[in-house]
Structure formats: structure tokens, C-alpha cells
Amino acid sequence: MGTLDTVLIQYELLPPADVSLLVQDCGRQGEPLERYLVARGCLEPTALPVLRTLQMGAVSMDSEQVRQIFRFESLLQRVDMLRRGTAAPAPPVSLPDPAPPMLAMPEVGDMLGKCEIVAVLGHGATATVYQAFHKFLRIPVALKVLSPRLLLQNPDMESMFLDEAMNTARLNHPSLVRVFDAEKTPQYTYMVMEYIDGPTLTRLIEPCGKLPMEHAIQAAIEICSVLEYALEFNMIHRDIKPDNLMLTRKSELKLADFGLARVDA
Q1: Which of 5, 110, 163, 239 is catalytic?
Q2: Degrees to nearest 5, angle at CA 146 with 59 and 164
Q3: pTM for this model (two decimals)
């Protein structure tokens, strides 16, 4: 987990020397940097949950978006006052309660329901996927946990995420990554999926830029089979790409991620 001064430098809001001035001054005042900036009108208290997700690396924002969180003129004025030795202490300020737990992504060793997280498998635009161990079933599983960035920006994403879980759980095909369960808790919204112990098609293609012809044809036949099966349930995947095609260690092809699927009535 990063620190607030690291965020200021990483997103190029202030030169490192100016950030050092702020850190030194808040140290003299005996305040955490976030409280120091709120008290001096440089930062809105309501922005603190977003900053905490930035510090944890749970969201991705460009410098201009982060710049808008701060009252940048006040920040520059504060640095200028420190340079001239005219900065005065600020009155006490009360900060809001810590960020809701849902803004923090789970970590290795955490329990989600009956599943213990073992490793991080990857980060996507909508979710982070973990390898986990189901304590009751005694099998490895994959956990797909909805991104806190999307919940911050669009709470409706939660219902779309759960719809994906319910729609995919209806399907049972050997070339499809199964969904076993889904859960909505005060902390996390996630689904429990079949764990695939091999690479994506993207990783197989990277070394030479393409698959051998016979392998490509076989993959196309298998994917057409699962897409035809999904059509029996009036489902259209709409996101077929190498990242969503996975191979088991036995070279079995699996289609994942019905997040963009359309379900026709």
C-alpha cells in the first residue's frame, strides 16, 4: 500500500521537493498528511475514499483526474508559504470515517465465504480474479471480485456483474468455464468459478504471433460448439478474444467471461 505523498509524486501533482516540504511541515504539526491537507483547504474530506483506493492500487486514474481531487491553488499557496517561512498552523479538523471495506480489494490469505484466497491471477477492467481454495468442497476455484472503481463510478455495475454470474451458471458445457456460486456481501461482490490451471490463448500466441493452422482450426471448432450451445439459452457472448480463451494442462479449451453477453428473451 502506497502513501499519500507517493500519490502526489506518482501523479506529478507536485515536484518531489515540494512534497518533501509538505511532509516536513505536517511532521512538525504532528498530523497525518491527509488530515494536514484537509485542514488547510487543499483536499475535500469526501475525496479520501478515492485516494485510499489509489494508494492500494485498486483503481487507475490519470494525472488530470487526480488533480481535480485537490484544491490545487491552495496546495501551491501552501508550498509557497512554506518556502517563505510564513505558513501558520491550521485549526483542528475532523475527518470522515475510514473508507468502507468494499473499497479495499481482498488480499492473499483472506476468506471470502468458504474460499481462502491463494494468489492473484489477474486484473481486468471490471474485476480482479484470484486463485482460491474452497474449504468445504476441497477443490481449487477462481474468485472474480468486482472492481471497487466500477462501484464508485457506477453502482449499477453490481447488478450487471451478478446477472453475468446467474446467466453463466445456467450453462453446462465442457468448453465453458463454469460458475458455481455468486455472493453479494457488505464488503465484496464476487463469483466462484471453475479454476483453469493453464494459460490464456493470448500467452500461447505471444511468442510467434499466431497458432499453428491445425490448432487454430481445432480451437475455432470448439468455440463454435460452445457458442451454439449458449444460443440454445438465447445467449450471445459478444467478447470472443484470446484473453477469454483458456487452456487446461490437458490442453482442453475453455471459454470465459460472459460479462458482455446479451440474453435475448
Answers
A1: 239
A2: 140
A3: 0.59
